[in-house]
Design brief:
Blueprint lengths: L10 H11 L4 H12 L5 H5 L3 H16 L2 E7 L6 E7 H4 L8 E6 L2 E6 L3 H6 L6 H12 L9 H14 L6 E5 L6 E5 L2 H27 L3 H6 L2 H12 L1
Antiparallel strand pairs: 1-2, 3-4, 5-6
Helix pairs in contact: 1-9, 2-4, 7-8, 9-11
Length: 239
């Protein structure tokens, strides 16, 4: 079993992760971040984590690196106004379901289902049609040879998979203050955390450039400083 190490991304880690991850597919970026959260695990182990287990690692890494408080902006589906959400990482944690597989009654038959992982997401990465992508995911979740699955059974299996791996299915129920519309918005910790890492890495590069110009210090010396110390030097450089 892979458990998070409680590590936070250092300034050096942030830049290295951003540099490597910029050219990667979002699925691989998520696994790159997981490698920092669980350094004892190899790439195959991380790829075979269920999506919920992967996201639990990313939530831990986010909390260790940026703190518990999380703010996001979601666009209203009706009027396109921006809705601000303030929440804690702790409140996003969902108790894991212990079993990875199990037999379930779907329609008039029993099927054995397993939790989906990053390899399954990679299998639909180039599938543009959402219906075709869902059908493929459902077929991959069925253990053994899958017979044709009806649309009703697909929906039932998708719902059962969400129950098996609830951490993978975070959804906010929202109401727009501007137009009054209510809607549901999924929350993807992998893309959210990558956005934060990318933003912070670009900021760090600007800080390094400014301090190197002002004081002729090396990148490693600047990144080794605490954020408070680095900020004070930036203030002096701009004075």
């Amino acid at each position: 079993m892979i458990t998070p190490a409680g590590r936070a991304l250092t300034s050096h880690d942030m830049l290295r992760t951003w540099e490597v991850g910029t050219g990667l597919h979002p699925i691989d970026r998520a696994l790159l971040l997981c490698a920092f959260a669980a350094p004892e695990a190899d790439s195959t182990e991380l790829a075979r984590l269920s999506i919920g287990e992967r996201d639990a690692l990313l939530l831990q890494l986010r909390q260790s690196t940026f703190g518990d408080r999380l703010q996001a902006v979601v666009e209203c589906e009706q009027c396109r106004a921006g809705l601000e959400i303030a929440i804690t990482v702790g409140s996003l944690r969902v108790p894991a379901v212990a079993v990875k597989t199990g037999r379930h009654r779907i329609g008039d038959r029993e099927v054995e289902l397993r939790k989906l992982d990053s390899c399954d997401l990679a299998a639909i990465a180039t599938t543009a049609d959402p219906a075709a992508a869902r059908k493929l995911l459902v077929s991959r979740a069925i253990v053994g040879e899958a017979a044709d699955v009806s649309e009703a059974d697909e929906a039932a299996i998708a719902a059962r998979l969400a129950e098996l791996d609830p951490q993978a299915d975070l959804v906010f129920d929202l109401a727009c203050a501007e137009c009054g519309a209510t809607f549901r918005a999924p929350f993807d910790i992998a893309s959210f955390l990558w956005s934060e890492v990318s933003t912070q890495a670009r900021r760090l590069i600007e800080d390094v450039a400014a301090l190197a110009r002002a004081f002729k210090w090396s990148e490693s010396d600047i990144l080794a400083m605490s954020p408070q110390r680095r900020q004070r030097y930036l203030e002096l450089a701009e004075a």
